[in-house]
Amino acid sequence: MRVFVTGASGWIGSAVTDELVAHGHDVLGLARSDASAAALEKRNVTAHRGSLDDPDSLAAGAEAADAVIHLAFKHDFSDYAGAGRAERAAVQRMLDAMEGSGRPFLLASGLAHLTPGRSATEDDASPHCTADSVRGGSENLALSYADRGVRPVALRFAPTVHGTGDHGFVSVLADIARTRGAAGYIGDGSSRWAAVHVADAARLVRLALDAAPPGFRVHAAAEEGVPSRDIAAALGDFLGLPAVSVPPEEAAEHFGWISHFFGADQPASSARTRDLLGWTPTGPTLLDDIAAGAYK
C-alpha cells in the first residue's frame, strides 16, 4: 500500500514511517525543505514537497496514495487558535480529495482535556467542533467523512509519547527542573497523564491502518495514568534534584505554558483499542525511560 504521511520526519512520524516501511508499505512523506526531503530519502521514504500552509500540495499527496496518515501539526503555542484553523483547512482539503474513494484517512488527535477527572474511553466524542476550537475541531470533521466514502480513524495519542529523543512535554519539564533547581509538580501531584512508548504508538498506527473501522477512535495509551508527582520524582532522581510541590496559584509562573497541561487530570483507557486491534504494548514505561536517561 502506498501511504502518504504528513509529519513523516517528526518524533512520532519518524517511528511510524519506519514501521510502515519495515512491513512492506511504500511511504510518501511530506517534506517542507530540501533537508527534510533528503532525510526521508535516506530512510527509504519518497519525499513529497509541500506544507500545511499549502493545501494543494496536501491534496496532491492524498490523491497519489492509497491511504493518508496525517501526523503533522503546527505546534505554535503563541497562536494556538491560528494553528487550529490551519489544521482544519489542511484536513478539509485532504478529505475532499479523498471523498468517495473508500480510502483510509488516519488523523493525529490527542487525549488531553477530553474528560477531566476520569479516564477517557474510545466512546467519548471530542468536545472540539469548530475551527476556533482545539486543533480546529479536526477530529470531528474527519470522522464526519465516514458517511462520505472515506474510512476516517482518529489516532488519539497520550499526552506523552516517550522514548530516547523525545522533545515533547516531559523534555520541557526536565528543562524547567534544571532551570529551577527542583523537579516540580502542582499541588498534591495527583493529576495523571496517560503515556505510551513511541515504538508501541507506531505499531498501533500500523494496526489501525490495517484494521480500524470507519469512525473509530484509537487510544494510544499504554499506561492509563501516571501521577505527576511520580513523574517529578523520577526526573528529580535522575537529575539529582529534589521533587517539590508548587502551589496551584504559582504554577503558571513556575511552569509557564505547560502548567495548563501538567496540572490537568487526564487519564485514558485503551481497552477497546487493544481488544479490537490486538495491540499489546511492550515498550518501557514512562518512568523507566526517565530513569534510563531518555531526558538527559
UniProtKB/TrEMBL annotation:
One MF annotation (Gene Ontology) recorded for this entry: aldehyde dehydrogenase (NAD+) activity
Record InterPro entries: Epimerase_deHydtase, NAD(P)-bd_dom_sf, NAD(P)-dependent_oxidoreduct
Protein name per the record: SDR family oxidoreductase
Pfam families: Epimerase
Alphabetized PANTHER family for the sequence: PROTEIN YEEZ (PTHR48079), PUTATIVE-RELATED (PTHR48079:SF9)
GO cellular component: cytoplasm
SUPFAM superfamilies in UniProt: NAD(P)-binding Rossmann-fold domains
Residues in NAD-dependent epimerase/dehydratase domain copies: 3-211
Source species of the chain: Streptomyces apricus
Domain of life per record: Bacteria
